[in-house]
Amino acid sequence: MNNSVIQRAAESEWGPFYRRARARLRARGAAALTLTAVSSCLVLLFAAVDEFPSGAAFVSRMGVVRATEPWDVALLRFPVSIFVPAIHLPCWTAVFLVVLAFGAAELTIGPWRTLAVGYACSLVGTCYARFGVSQAPGHLLHLPAAFAQVRDTGPSAAVVGLGLLVAWRFGARWTALGVVLLTAAITAVDPELAGYEHMAALVTAALLLLADGVARRLAARGAHGSAAVAPQRVA
C-alpha cells in the first residue's frame, strides 16, 4: 500500500474533522481548548486531593456517587463526579482520555456542546446504574446488586459518548465503529459497572446524533421551501 492510498484513506476518514479543528485553532488559538485544559486540571486536582485521608473524605462528599444514595444527593454530586477519576482508572490515563475526547469535541462542536453531551452521556449512565440494580435478575436491563455499592465517578462515559458523536458527526465512520466495537468488547470481557455505563453513553450519543440529523433535515427542508415560495424581484 503506497503513501497516496494511505493519504486518501486518511483524508476520507478524518479530513472534515481535521479541517474543522484546524480552523478553530487558527481562529482562537489556545483559547479554543479552554474547557479541555480546565477539565484536565480538575481531574488532576481531585486525584491529588483523593490521595490524603482528609482529602478523600472531602472528595467523597463532593463528587462520589453511588446507586444507594438518595437522588438529591446524587444529583448534587453528579456535576463534580465526572472530574473525579474512577478507582480502577489511573489518573494520567483519565487525563489523557479527557485531552483526547474533550479536545477533539471542543475543537469541532464547541465547548458548550461538548459539556452538554459529556454530561448527558454521564447522567444517562448514572441513571441506568440506579435503574439496573433495582430490576429483578430476569429483566433485560438488570445489573448485579453489588454494583449499587460501586463508586460511580470519572469522565470515561463522557469520553466514550463524545468519541462516538464527534467521529460520526464529521464522517469518520470507521473510527465511530471502532469506538462502539471496542467499548462492547471491553464490557463483554470485563463486565463491570463502568462498561455498562459506557454502553448507555453510546446509546445516548446515538440518539443525540439521530436528533441532530432530523433537525438538520427539517431545517434544510424549511429553507428549501422558503426559497421556492419567495417572490421574484421585478427588474
TrEMBL record:
<keyword id="KW-0472">Membrane</keyword>
<keyword id="KW-0812">Transmembrane</keyword>
<feature type="transmembrane region" description="Helical">
    <location>
        <begin position="195"/>
        <end position="215"/>
    </location>
</feature>
<feature type="transmembrane region" description="Helical">
    <location>
        <begin position="170"/>
        <end position="189"/>
    </location>
</feature>
<keyword id="KW-1133">Transmembrane helix</keyword>
<feature type="transmembrane region" description="Helical">
    <location>
        <begin position="29"/>
        <end position="49"/>
    </location>
</feature>
<protein>
    <recommendedName>
        <fullName>Rhomboid family intramembrane serine protease</fullName>
    </recommendedName>
</protein>
<feature type="transmembrane region" description="Helical">
    <location>
        <begin position="82"/>
        <end position="105"/>
    </location>
</feature>
